Amino acid sequence: MINKEVANVQIALADVFDGATIMLGGFGLCGIPENCIGELLRQNFKNLTCISNNAGVDDFGLGLLLKNKQIKKMIASYVGENAEFEKQLLSGELEVELIPQGTLAERIRAGGAGIPAFYTPAGYGTEIAQGKEIREFNGKMYLLEYGLRADFALVKAWKGDTAGNLIYKGTARNFNPLMATAGKVTIAEVEELVPAGELDPNYIHTPGIFVQRIFKGMTYEKRIEQRTVRT
């Protein structure tokens, strides 16, 4: 069995380049590839196109790359927690493509499945529909949306094995399994890494065939965006 383990995040991201298109798993700050984002920041890659549900917050997640002016274009669904994002959008520094969340998920799934395009009713009659092909099916109007692919997909899992099989925990599953299928190179960071064959096949969410590199991550913060407690 092929061993896809690499020693650290530096080796895992060694062939990332300026101008790359990168998918990053996560929802809010849940299930984001913290180690990979930190390495992108350290190596200071520029002109990146980032595909993610959201842009993190000002001082964590993708917000760190935004603050460092490394992202040229953001393809996302929700960006309401990031003041730096708003600033760069309004100033024209950042190119943005906002996509309904379900459409974003389906575009990624389609890209990973080799489906070039599909029709969806989401966004019809709104600004989302501008410039897109529209067709009627059974009396309802639909937009043509294209599948999404990326040079690299960076995903975060709870547990993985050296063959690249992944298991996600709870809501940290979110966009990670979809993105793992849609990258030309998929890189997984995991909290726990075990030898191939130790994971129960019935519980694997992402088969190792989709993963090119895997490494054990370090020092996860797992922040909460909006902490609410009783008085």
Describe the fold and architecture:
The protein is α/β, with parallel strands linked by helices and 231 residues long. It has one domain (9-115, 148-216): Glutaconate Coenzyme A-transferase (3-Layer(aba) Sandwich). Helix content is 21%, strand content 27%. The chain is built from six helices and eleven strands. The chain has helices at residues 9-12, 34-43, 62-67, 83-91, 101-113, 176-182, and strands at 21-24, 48-51, 71-76, 95-98, 117-120, 134-137, 140-146, 150-161, 166-167, 183-194, 213-216. α5 (101-113) packs parallel to α6. The longest helix has 13 residues, at 101-113. The radius of gyration is 18 Å and the shape is globular. The model has no long low-confidence stretch (mean pLDDT 95).
Q: Briefly, what is this?
A:
InterPro entries: 3-oxoacid_CoA-transf_A (IPR012792), CoA_trans_fam_I (IPR004165), CoA_transf_BS (IPR004163), NagB/RpiA_transferase-like (IPR037171). GO terms for molecular function: CoA-transferase activity. By secondary structure, the chain is an alpha/beta fold.
